[in-house]
Design brief:
By secondary structure, the chain is of the alpha+beta class. The protein folds into 2 domains: 189 residues, GAF domain (Beta-Lactamase, 2-Layer Sandwich); 80 residues, no CATH class. Helices cover 41% and strands 25% of the residues. The protein has 7 helices and 10 strands. Strands 2-1-5-4-3 form a 5-stranded antiparallel sheet, sandwiched between helices. Strands 9-8-7-6-10 form a 5-stranded antiparallel sheet. A hairpin with a 2-residue loop joins strand 4 and strand 5. Helix 3 packs antiparallel against helix 5. The longest helix has 31 residues. It is elongated, with a radius of gyration of 22 Å. The protein starts with a helix and ends in a 10-residue tail after the last strand. The C terminus is likely disordered. The protein binds zinc ion. Zinc ion (ZN) binds next to strand 8.
Length: 295
């Protein structure tokens, strides 16, 4: 695909910003033809792709050798998205459901956002996916789909060979490269562990706190919940030890509400606690969703 065709492919993307498509396409080509290792290529190309697609978040996903499904190896912008946590996990499920399709997928999510999934292939083998969460504005959600699919194909025509080439540098085979990505995923797990430790420490210091009003307490519990959700975490219920969501509920005997632990026990939604100040908060991994097989 020559530069003019590429630029044309991105012209149909709904946008209100003043990104100069031609300049960004030039940058993307340069990064794709460059010689950075994959670890640097992913964030550099994502940065440009977000601008080209008027997207707020994006990720590259790959399936490590021996793994059944994909894992994100480079992610940007998801923490800042104004999307509910359930919508965010739906987006992840979309990637895991669509990465083996032959062509780009455009799926509506909460307006004005659309989820774009570009399968990354090595010949006939699906090896990963490019995921973007773009803002399509107030337009008819069906309208920009064709434009997005066209632009995704254009982006993939540059990116796929760039990734394959980097995976095959020298003696490196696709298998070795996916193993390298698996190692990267391991490093990310290590980072997540230290992040969890930092969150644990900070929450531990808040024992005994209350924020002066029901609204403030509720705002605080929402902030905690958003933070935990981002990192796939929950708090431990001090009463039964189960993974729970911390909430602040109205209570006739406590003006500022009471802190409760919301969890499902034996299949029933149950609240424990009822503290007027924050009890000890300990974090734990979010349990897998009920009724869904772990893949
Ligand atoms: Zn409990």
């Amino acid at each position: 695909m020559n530069e003019a065709t590429l630029v044309e492919a991105f012209r149909g993307i709904p946008r209100r910003d003043s990104v100069r498509v031609g300049v960004q396409v030039g940058k993307l080509r340069k990064v794709c033809l460059g010689d950075q290792a994959l670890e640097a290529f992913f964030p550099e190309s994502l940065d440009i792709l977000l601008r080209l697609f008027n997207a707020s978040a994006g990720a590259f996903w790959f399936r490590p050798f021996n793994a059944a499904t994909l894992f994100p190896v480079s992610r940007v912008g998801f923490e800042q998205l104004a999307l509910s946590n359930s919508c965010l996990s739906d987006c992840e499920q979309m990637v895991r459901g669509a990465w083996q399709s032959l062509g780009p997928q455009v799926r509506p999510i909460d307006r004005p956002f659309v989820s774009l999934i570009g399968p990354i292939r090595d010949g006939s083998t699906a090896i990963g996916a490019l995921q973007l969460v773009a803002e399509c504005g107030d337009e008819d959600p069906q309208q920009p789909n064709v434009a997005y699919a066209k632009a995704l194909s254009a982006a993939l025509s540059l990116i796929q060979p760039a990734i394959r080439r980097r995976m095959q540098v020298g003696e490196t085979s696709i298998r070795e490269a996916t193993d390298r990505l698996a190692q990267l995923a391991d490093q990310l797990t290590g980072l997540q562990r230290s992040m969890r430790h930092a969150i644990d420490q900070t929450l531990g210091q808040l024992r005994g706190a209350s924020f002066g009003s029901l609204t403030a307490n509720q705002r605080f519990t929402r902030v905690i919940q958003d933070l935990l959700e981002t990192h796939g975490l929950r708090v431990v219920c001090p009463e039964c030890g189960a993974a729970a969501i911390l909430r602040c509920s109205k209570n006739p005997r406590a003006r500022d509400g009471v802190f409760v632990f919301d969890h499902s026990l034996a299949g029933r939604r149950t609240f424990h606690g009822g503290y007027t100040t924050l009890p000890v908060l300990q974090v734990v991994s979010k349990p897998p969703r009920r009724g869904k097989a772990i893949r």
